[in-house]
């Protein structure tokens, strides 16, 4: 089990480093937070005031728009799939459809509703493709007492035979509950490119660049919104962090509720003295680390991204409740 947890920790660290690296290497905005005019993704021909976009992309773009006043309109041509594929497969296959979905829905409402609709659709698809992994993740909570029993049985035994017996009993336990201990990692790999794609889409979709939600610009960061006196921006940020934490903790809470409901009395080995250093402690540590990392990154992300993450976390909370109610047997 320790080796499994170490592998998961390494994976989480790698994913976080990749997220920071990739998002840092392909930010379609200048230092002031304005999106480059040539990076905006549109569903149809649109216009945008020069003052809300950045023309400081390269010398050619600067020259093209240098004579325009801040209030002058710049015409944007519809963005095609071919245009995005010219930038790269990631932009064409992931960023483009997400951004255009946001634009499509926002055409009937606003950018915020567009983000909500795109997020819910994406989460539904992820749920359908990764439901087995998510069920396995919650089942891991169920078998934790039995894992603790095995660990307690071989505690302090470092000989090869004991290690082998422990591994065999652990594997037999996974087989009994039909769980692949690495299956939960599938969720991370599915969500990772979507998160990066949404990050790009919330900065490049025309309806987000030019739109607002509840009177708040979706391209400003929570810090910018706070400095401008738009405290609703900080409310969205705080709710995002809160629901992110709830979405992580909910499976544990549901498991505790299930035990109380069924009057399950755990034996001493189910709660060993070194529990905080055990599997549950490691899971909690990863949970708090990932939430903290998201909070640090999100404080300087466009508010549209924080809004996405808030809706995404609420959707995961609902998914956990559905899995608990309909897929996890008491």
From TrEMBL:
Belongs to the OXA1/ALB3/YidC family. One of its GO terms (molecular function) is membrane insertase activity. Its main location: membrane. Keywords: Membrane, Signal, Transmembrane, Transmembrane helix. GO terms for biological process: protein insertion into membrane. It holds the Pfam family 60KD_IMP. InterPro entries: YidC/ALB3/OXA1/COX18, YidC/Oxa/ALB_C. It is a multi-pass membrane protein. GO terms for cellular component: plasma membrane. Residues 1-26 form the signal peptide. It is found in: Membrane. It comes from the Bacteria. The chain crosses the membrane at residues 111-131, 182-201, 228-250, 283-301. This is Membrane protein insertase YidC. NCBIfam families: yidC_oxa1_cterm.
